[in-house]
TrEMBL record, chain A:
Name of the protein in its database record: Cytochrome c oxidase subunit 1
Membrane topology: Multi-pass membrane protein
Residue span, Cytochrome oxidase subunit I profile domain: 35-543
Species the sequence originates in: Lichenicola cladoniae
GO MF annotations in UniProt: cytochrome-c oxidase activity; heme binding; metal ion binding; oxidoreductase activity
Pfam families (UniProt xref): COX1
Gene: ctaD
UniProtKB/TrEMBL annotation, chain B:
Ranges where the Heme-copper oxidase subunit III family profile domain occurs: 35-226
Chief subcellular location: membrane
Record organism: Lichenicola cladoniae
GO aspect biological process, one term: aerobic electron transport chain
Family to which the UniProt record says this protein belongs: Belongs to the cytochrome c oxidase subunit 3 family.
Name of this protein: Cytochrome oxidase subunit III
Amino acid sequence: MSPSDLVLGRVSEGVREPHPGRTTIDREPDYLHDEHTLRSWLGSTDHKRIGILYLLSITFFFIIGACAAGLIRLSLVVPNGQIFSNDTYNKLFTIHGVVMVWFFLIPSIPATFGNFIMPIMIGAKDVAFPRLNRTSWYIFMTGAFFTLFTVVVGGVDTGWTFYAPFSTTFSNTWVVPALIGVIVVGFSSILTGLNFIVTIHTMRAPGMTWFRMPIFVWTMYATSLIFLLATPVITIALILLVMERAFHIGVFDPALGGDPVLFEHLFWFYSHPAVYIMVLPGMGVISEIVPAFAQKKLFGYRFVAYASIGLASLTFFVWGHHMFVNGESETSAVVFSVLSFAVAVPSAVKVYNWTATIYKGSLKLDTPMLYAMGYIGLFVVGGLTGLFLATLAVDEHVHDTYFVVAHFHYIMVGGTALAFLGGLHYWWPKFTGRMYPEALGRLSAFFIFIGFNTTFFPQFLLGYLGMPRRYHNYPPEFQLLNILSSAGSVVLALGYLFPMFYLTWSLRYGKRAPANPWNAKGLEWTTSSPPPKHNFETPPTVDFEPYDYIAREDRV
Amino acid sequence: MSGTVAHLNTGPTAEVGLEREEHFTTDGQQIHAAKFGLWCWLLTELLLFAGLFLTALVLRIMHPQAVTEVAKHLKFWIGATNTAVLIVSSFTMSGAIELSRLGWQRGMVRCMLATAALGSLFLVLKGYEYYEDWDEHMMPFLSSRPYVLTQDPSSRLFTDLYYITTGLHGLHLLTGVSILLVMTWMASRPGFLGRRQNRIEIFGLYWHFIDLIWIIVFPVLYVLNR
């Protein structure tokens, strides 16, 4: 070995970085440095690499969806909508909805963190079907790019819900190709859910019993159940749409013997549970962050676990609350209303448990915790306004107005995007082996919280005052609130852009991360950052309870 | 071909087993995961059809006369024969699985070919049934084949559901036959049972399930109210 080799760090195969003056680590290369070629990434069956592939893909889709949202808000600054034509506006909100719901919110946390962290959390070497996992990503990318291509190049004006009979009979846009892409992406969801369920059942490390699993794993399990049980129903609903539009085999068009309300039933039987595909994983992330930054055992662990399964089950019985004003019988409306109220119980259980965990904890207000607290706030607002909408009389008033838009943005975007960013900062050291700049992280959390509320809170007022959703023009008296909302979206956009820059920056210049930078509990913090190819140097055995932070009274 | 056939005569002495993938700790874990995974997939298949079954049943309850009128025009005997054909094919598939467990590769391959043949027979009969339907002007979505009964919306919806449901089932069967043929070709090669016997069992589950779906399709579309 020549001295110049030593300076350049070229000591052995195990060397990770050719930086002079740094300590070289003489151990097995981790999953990031195992191989460097593009092929080794695109052909990888390692769940961690697949998680990173998903992370990059959904970030890309997020940017597309966010740009469309920005254009929508730009157009709504003026009441008469002179910026875009009616048609372009319809296509824009469809791009925003389709891309954000199908290609960002639904896969976001399960496909990225679920893939990366969940197997490590249960002490497995990989998911049960690694090749299927890789295939799922390819299916996702194929379907998503196909649809993205159609909505951007050809355009679709149906909105993300593809409501019949507009989508089957009247729309003159590229509905069929867009639907085919969404159907294909559904298979990716099903396969990911199936993989997770089998992994959680069969791949747990010795000693990892069901009630020793972190809540994130519980929520992944509950989410996967929804993937598995609800996705086939949207698949068949969309196949029927394609059949009707392309071959005139009528199912939804009354002129062909069909019933448009049938589409709503099939659609919401999936799409209401889909909300919980977006929210439950977020709850899982928050349940990891809050105990770590309060350094306290998660309050009522079992109840939080049961509440996850409870939410996943209840969600299948509330789809009718999307149809209060479409002529469903009074009895069904009342039943669906009551069942929708019931959803508040497990949701509240979770919020109370997080609050009780924070209570008298030794709080560290680092970036992930700031995001988590922002999440809890937004989730409470979104949840309570959900009760407004479940109330029959109020729903009559605010149905299809901006009130609904604000409500589901609070739940779905507040619930997913904030948890996603919180989780991204929390596990970033584990993903990359680098720390991010803490001050910028906190700043981004503030920007997002303030931007989010400025954007969406005015929409509650707009909706209550009667501004309908999906319109590109409105009476001039609504302009002030719309300008406020658009201004908020600029702040929100800044909040999203920040992490993209400093996280990328940290990949090269960030401080090296220790195995457990947060002093957190859980198997993922016992392995190195980033983890080795097979997750653990020695296969773990679990002989501790989840979240075994030192009890308060035992602290010195 | 003779080169490949020779080893098939090894009879029940062919080694039976499975090659363990590196992320599993035990064979049992791998077998359990594969079986459980396929059951989960089959659950999604059931739900894929469930929307169609439910719609057809609700339609029958709400508009019994109009629906029964159409249902009487379905070719009951072809449907019934097809049911029998699929049940026999499930039996031959079970035979293939049992023989694969015993390591009787030649018998297993024969049973698998018989299963594929029966599956194809089903598709041929189904195709003939569609031809008869076409001949009777029963396809309302072809504007050149107007069908008097479908003037009534619920009859038309039921007829459309019939084509979608049987078409979707036929597509599943076509996929099944294709996979089965590829698998038979792979399973006839030496050493297959020693490494991949598991796959025959897993595929068997899928085949039985397609059979089971038809056993729901048949009464829901052809038999009820008859």
